[in-house]
Design a protein that fits this description.
The complex is a heterodimer of chains A (362) and B (414). Helices cover 54% and strands 14% of the residues of chain A. With 362 residues, chain A is an alpha+beta fold. Chain A folds into three domains: 98 residues, Butyryl-Coa Dehydrogenase, subunit A, domain 1, CATH 1.10.540.10; 90 residues, Butyryl-CoA Dehydrogenase, subunit A, domain 2; 145 residues, Butyryl-CoA Dehydrogenase, subunit A, domain 3 (Up-down Bundle). In chain A, the strands form three sheets. Chain A has a four-stranded mixed beta sheet with strand order 1-4-5-8. A four-stranded antiparallel beta sheet of chain A has the order 2-3-7-6, with no helix packed on it. Chain A is globular. Chain B is α+β, with helices and mostly antiparallel strands and 414 residues long. Chain B folds into three domains: 98 residues, no CATH class; 108 residues, Beta Barrel (Butyryl-CoA Dehydrogenase, subunit A, domain 2); 139 residues, Butyryl-CoA Dehydrogenase, subunit A, domain 3 (Up-down Bundle), CATH 1.20.140.10. Chain B has 13 helices and twelve strands. Classes of the chains: A alpha+beta (362), B alpha+beta (414). Chains A and B meet through helix 8, strand 10, helix 9, helix 10 and helix 12 of A and helix 9 and helix 13 of B. The structure holds flavin-adenine dinucleotide. Flavin-adenine dinucleotide binds next to strand 3, helix 12 and helix 13 of chain B.
Chain lengths: 362, 414
Amino acid sequence: MYFGLSEDQIFFQDNVKKFLEDNAPLDAVKKITEGADLATKDELHQGLINLGINNILIPEENGGLGLDLLFASAVSQSLGEGIAALPFVGPYVIAPIAIKYGASDSQKEKLFNEMSQNLINCGVGFSEYFGSRDSSDLSISNNKITGRTLFVLDVDFASHVMLCDKKGQIGLVSLKSKGIEIIDLTTVDKTRTYKEMIFKDTPIEILDKTKTSTEAAEMALSAGRIVAAADSLGASQAMINKAVEYSKERKQFNRVIGSFQAVKHMCAEMTAELEPCYSLVWHAAHSFDDSHEDSKLMACLAKSHTSDVSKMVSKKATEVHGGMGFTDLLGLHFWFKRIGLNRHILGSPEIVREEAAKAQGL
Amino acid sequence: MNLNYGPEYEDFTKEVQKFCKEYSGVIITNKKGGALTSLSSITNSDKSDGAKVSRSEWQKILIKNGYFARSIPKEYGGFGGDIDIIKNRIIAAEFASNRIPPPMGGQGIDMLVPTLLELGTEEQKQKYIKPTLYGEMIWCQGYSEPNAGSDLASLQTKGELIDGNWVINGQKIWTSTAQYSQMMFCLVRTEPDAPKHAGISYLLIPMDTPGIEIRPLVDMTLNAGFNEVFFTDVTIPEGNIVGKRGEGWTVANATLGHERGSLTDPNATMNRLHMLIDRMKEETINGKKVIENPAYRDKLIQLQGKVMAFQSNSLRVLSAKLNKGQDVKIAGMIQKLIGTELRHELEGFCIDVMGELGTLFEGSPNIRDGGSWQFTYMYYLGLIIGGGTSQIQKNIISERGLGMPREPKTQQET
Ligand SMILES: Cc1cc2nc3c(=O)[nH]c(=O)nc-3n(C[C@H](O)[C@H](O)[C@H](O)COP(=O)(O)OP(=O)(O)OC[C@H]3O[C@@H](n4cnc5c(N)ncnc54)[C@H](O)[C@@H]3O)c2cc1C
């Protein structure tokens, strides 16, 4: 029995972390988020691809690494911690899982092969499946898609977008097709991009099995939720580390503020709440990899609970920094906002908890 | 990640399951005891229809089968098996999910026995461990004093060695189950000139020694869960000491670790979550089941997330015990804080689920689950305070876990 990340997982995770530390310090991230340095963004993306983050979930026979969701979660922690201004959950987690469970054998062969060589890259729009807002709607018929959807994730380097309608039908649209309008959504989180997309009779290739089964939609969504939760774990850990570090340096009343119990207890509370979230997220990823009957429930619990704890951490860690925590200069707010987005993408806590209740027949 | 215990444990699991089936619905008949025994009675389900067994018979059955005191040597009354935390875990999990009454706990079993095994003399082990395991010798913990709570090391109860005997004078307070106990393990200041932590000894005191006066204190659950204990020239043999003179603080710290582990049981928490869900399916508001009310249901799933996180975390802590080199330092440190706070919250939520009915107590008409929700809600507030308060836990996490500065000492202390 072993509960935790394996040496390989930790090694991969540390590689990604180190890569980001060396190549994407906060200044670089800031420039990218201002849209001022797209060349660096390209380079960073390429660097992570060289490490293999695009191939984690692609089978070995198609040129991938054939690893599992726990691996992807471990890596996602590093991306959140290092505030990577790059796509991950859409193209490298949700897309391959949807293909694994939804594609016909021939579709799988072709798509995985192309994905492993990064010939195609998918942004992902699943909002219609778990909760349409603002009356958005997508309708698919005769291999054409029409309608509007919000919060399409990770279109940054995309050649395609993978869309899921409210019935769980999943298909791929080439961004070269006619009849696509893409609108930039400006959110608080500038480290990743979010789009509104409008389609008019746009050609779509439906993943075969999703015509009759919601399994692929469910699995892809669960995977995305676990990995988004892992991103929040990393972001929260970064915020706690910064708070503890700062509290050992900053002096008031001739003492370091970390010697004040109010400050110590805030740090202890953040840590005490976050530690069990690691266990929960890893457990959920493991249940997913094991195709355990509770995996949907575990994914929902991991996503909603980690979202709540991370929100608390993002507030308290900012408070520990005093006024400095509130400044753009320090940049703590990048993590604060990333946690804010992770909370809502792929399902806000209340929505996810309602799904959790249904998943266990309540 | 590998959550399988391995094929060698499959037979063992089956064996435990068979035992659970055999004793399904067993009822433990209690002598009315202190808070700990009334807490264990709530794990007896209301619908119990099985055999009635007394506490000490139950202990015997469990030890004989190796489901309790498993790794304690036979010569001290244990089962004499290998140390195998996985087997212990399987036993606890199967007992919990089959609602089989767990073995007796309490301060003798959870704290004193591990201490004696680690630091006691051969004679002490021979004399005390067996009757303690069999529930025939009940122990209380004499640590806290009126002026020494969180700051335990400032305790002042005095012990003097006179003519080969310890003579003890002073007062303890909050001593759980003292009125039912045969023995007390007690911290006493024996070296008044030594520094605070180095002047304490760990003594074993028979409760029928002349000069001991016990005054029960009624706690908020309206049970006399704890007591004041007064010592006037209480005289015990010199040999009733564990460790050396002045080493009592180290000895006591060995047992505090055991206590903190025993206060928070993730299996019991999971069981209570299931009982909460049952309650929500039965209770109605305006004829509609509470479980169908989205506000309550959302709160339930929030709690379920916390319970799962706590349970997963205890798996991680277990894993670190099995796999040398796995570092989960902070994950282990937080269990007392998280576990007691979570249980208090869970019990309190079930009271909310029942609304006005949740306030019923003490055998009132219409009371649910024997009043266990109110009782345990309060009981766990006691555990949040006892065994190192939540605030003290946060001091420990921040200082030892996160390396933040220790509390500055007052002039008096330095
Ligand atoms: C149900 C129950 C059973 C118990 N059973 C036993 C028993 O069997 N044997 C025994 O010896 N004792 C027992 N105790 C005593 C228990 O260990 C003490 O109550 C506990 O250690 C707190 O001490 P205190 O009550 O003196 O509170 P205090 O130490 O006076 O604490 C009061 C408040 O001050 C806070 N505080 C104190 N110091 C600090 C600090 N350094 N930093 C931050 N906050 C601080 C505390 O957190 C608390 O909120 C029991 C207590 C309870 C509630």
